[in-house]
Automatic annotation (TrEMBL):
<dbReference type="InterPro" id="IPR046169">
    <property type="entry name" value="DUF6171"/>
</dbReference>
<dbReference type="Pfam" id="PF19668">
    <property type="entry name" value="DUF6171"/>
</dbReference>
<protein>
    <recommendedName>
        <fullName>Zinc-finger domain-containing protein</fullName>
    </recommendedName>
</protein>
Amino acid sequence: MGQIEKEPSYRKICRKCLLQDMDENEYFTDLRKYIAQIDKDLKVEDEEYQNRLAKCKECDNLLSGMCRICGCFVEMRAVMKKNHCPAVEKRW
C-alpha cells in the first residue's frame, strides 16, 4: 500500500502577486528581464522602442513609468509590435 502524502500545514504565498508586497527594485529588475526575454518577432526594433519611449516621456499622462490612460507600464506596452499608444490622438 502506498503512503498518502499530507498537505503541508502552511500555504506558500506568492510574494509577487501584489506590487505593494514587493521590493520596488526587484520588481523593476524582473520587468526588464521579462522584456529582454520576449520573442524577438513580437518586439519592435530597439530604435523604434526608444522612439516610442521618448514620445511617452513627453506625454502628460506618464506618471512613474505608467500610463494614466490605460494603466500599463509604458516600457512593456511600447516594446510590443501589436501595441499602440492608448491616447485618442496616438503618439505612436
